[in-house]
Amino acid sequence: MNAKLESGVTSLPVTRQTFDEVLVPTYAPAAMVPVRAAGLDVWDQEGKHYLDFTSGIAVSSLGHCNPLLVDAVTRQVNTLWHLGNGYTNEPVLRLASILTAATFADRAFFCNSGAEANEAALKLARKYAHTKFGPHKSRIVSCLSSFHGRTLFTVSVGGQPKYTEGFEPLPQEINHIAYNDIESARTAITDDVAAVIVEPIQGEGGVIPGDIDFLKALRELCDKTGALLVFDEVQSGVGRTGALYDYMNVGVTPDILTSAKALGNGYPIGAMLTTDEIAQHFNVGSHGTTYGGNPLAATVALNVVEQINQPSFLARVNEASAKLFAQLEKLSNDFPQLFGKPRGKGLLIGLPMAEGNKGRAKDYTKTAEKLGLMLLIAGPDVVRLAPALVVSDEQLIEADRIMRDAAQAFIAG
User: Fold this and answer.
1) Cα separation, 353 vs 341, whole angstroms
2) 150 annotated to a ligand binding site
3) Which of 203, 227, 264, 395 is the most exposed place for a label (fewest CB within 10 A)?
4) Are residues 53 and 72 in the same domain?
5) Is 45 annotated as a binding residue?
6) 234 is in an annotated binding site
7) Same domain, 38 and 79
């Protein structure tokens, strides 16, 4: 061990500068370092308070350090942590049971992230097509501006070239169509397509809801060609859009659904849900993961789903959504030089920057952060709001006040 770390490693003083010294520079985090949180409240190293309207990129939907989740995971920590996939465990069996009972699916596969869930979905789709139709049916169709993860396969399927530059050669037989463009879909989805993967609401691509007619057309084209329809609900799932999963809002049922982010409220877990017929093409040894479905992650997710998948809880999400949309509409009207009209669904909302301020979404969020409000971006042109689903009316009002102050400060320069 390095001499300077021989004692007191767990209490080693660290700052934001430490990130630049010891971590691979794949991120450019904020200057402040959060150290404590509860609900939607966050405090940094200096003791400054922030209202968190990011929920860890639509993850901590029940709030930071949710007492029920803390209690559940503490009990599991003192019971059973990890077994490996040579054994099953009670929490994962209960989690699979509750998810299949609540959705179209018959089977669940658990992993550690949304990227892994999408990787599993795409591998399964190709395996299914290869077995049922032959190796010629292998092409995958995705949408421009989509985001499906950072593995080489999923980042290639995502329709954003900035994430694939320098990683060539990329996996083959992947094509991209314009989002919400039915004619583009009809041209691309032919008999050699194994899977069509789509976000029912694009998150990283700018918070753009899928047109119901477009999503229905994808379903019809998949039925016609024998392709599997995969809904990536990593960001939109587990209550974020006011239903347990957004496919329930749009009335289009996929063949495979992927879930992560809010499923674990900050504890890493991902899930791929599908039908009996499709699941059988993943036989023993054809896919796997060391940590997927471990008792700790499954316990957290089980309690998350039980809390969120209640009519009263989802009704409150839709109520809070209506109030937040109304606030943002008024904000846009009051600052037309700064913002366009809000868009999105539930508590996943994008606020586009107005024409004269395109590319400056990050500048605005930095201004809001200085005033005590944590916000996200969805590309350079869109401010993204994804507060915990337990956000109160008082917190909505406080966020509106800070956003207005931030708008004034932003305009003043």
Assistant:
1) 9
2) yes
3) 395
4) no
5) no
6) yes
7) no
Instruction: Examine the fold and report which residue of 276, 308, 340 is the final residue of a domain before the chain moves on.
Output: 308
Is 232 annotated to bind ligand?
yes
Q: 353 and 207, same structural domain?
A: no
Is residue 115 a known part of a binding site? yes
- Please indicate, yes or no, whether residues 278 and 183 belong to a single structural domain of this protein: yes
Q: Do 148 and 277 share a domain, yes or no?
A: yes
Out of 171-175, 252-256, 329-333, 375-379, least confident range: 171-175
Residue 396 is part of a domain; what is its CATH number?
3.90.1150.10
Q: Does 225 show up as a binding residue in the annotation?
A: no
Same domain, 275 and 228: yes
Instruction: Let me know: does 327 contact 396? Beta carbons within 8 Å.
Output: yes
Which residue type is seen at 413? G
Pairing of strands 193-198, 139-143: parallel
Residues 247 and 335 in one domain: no
* 290-349 pLDDT per residue, tens: 999 999 999 999 999 999 999 999 999 999 999 999 999 999 999 999 999 999 999 999
71 is an annotated ligand-binding site residue: no
Q: Cα–Cα distance between 156 and 99 in angstroms, integer?
A: 29
CA 260 centroid distance within chain: 6
Q: In this structure, are strands 270-274 and 256-259 parallel, antiparallel, or unpaired?
A: antiparallel
Element (H, E) at 85: none
Q: Do the Cβ atoms of 388 and 63 come closer than 8 Å?
A: yes
Q: For residue 114, say whether it is annotated as part of any ligand binding site.
A: yes
Q: Look up the domain containing 333 and give its range.
A: 3-65+311-412
Q: Which of 292, 308, 324 is the last residue of a domain?
A: 308
Could you say which DSSP state residue 4 is in? G
Q: Is the pTM of this model over 0.85?
A: yes
- Specify whether 267 is located in the same domain as 290: yes
Closest by Cα among 154, 150, 86 to 123:
154
Q: Tell me: is residue 394 an annotated ligand-binding position.
A: no
- Would you say 233 is a known binding-site residue? yes
